[in-house]
Design brief:
single chain, about 140 residues, Aminopeptidase
Length: about 140
């Protein structure tokens, strides 16, 4: 059972990562995996030592207008990777995120720590409203 082990590692990593920030990420991830809620999704890229190096978490939230909106938290760890490797990792993460969000029929997204060039990936896939929030220190 690789998945429960991977989930535990991700939760441990994200708890440590998030201890330096003020976000609720560990709780959201725990809820996503613990409840089996299909409205939340996480993707993690591991290096050869199975250390998390990049990933994202997406959760849908109901806005006050009653419209389902996606919230993305995207992160990378500086492991000294080549630019080509980082580009491939980012493309993989973005493709998985777009596929998952389209499957839910989401048309608006709020992204944390997602830069403007990568926001264009989502705009090309039909996300009309897209806000980019860059978290300090990332």
């Amino acid at each position: 059972m690789l998945m429960p082990l991977l989930i535990r590692r991700v939760l441990k990593f994200m708890a440590a990562y998030n201890s330096n920030s003020d976000g609720p990420l560990p709780n959201i991830i725990h809820t996503a995996f613990g409840s089996g809620d299909p409205r939340a999704f996480i993707c993690v890229i591991l290096d050869k030592e199975e250390t998390a190096i990049a990933g994202h978490m997406v959760a849908t939230v109901e806005t006050y207008l009653g419209e389902a909106t996606g919230f993305i938290h995207q992160w990378e760890i500086d492991k000294g990777l080549q630019d080509e490797d980082l580009t491939a990792i980012r493309a993989t993460i973005d493709a998985m995120m777009v596929t998952w969000c389209n499957g839910l029929g989401l048309k608006s997204m709020t992204a944390m720590a997602l830069d403007e060039p990568r926001a264009r990936v989502f705009k090309r896939h039909g996300f009309e409203k897209f806000a980019v929030l860059v978290k300090r220190g990332m």
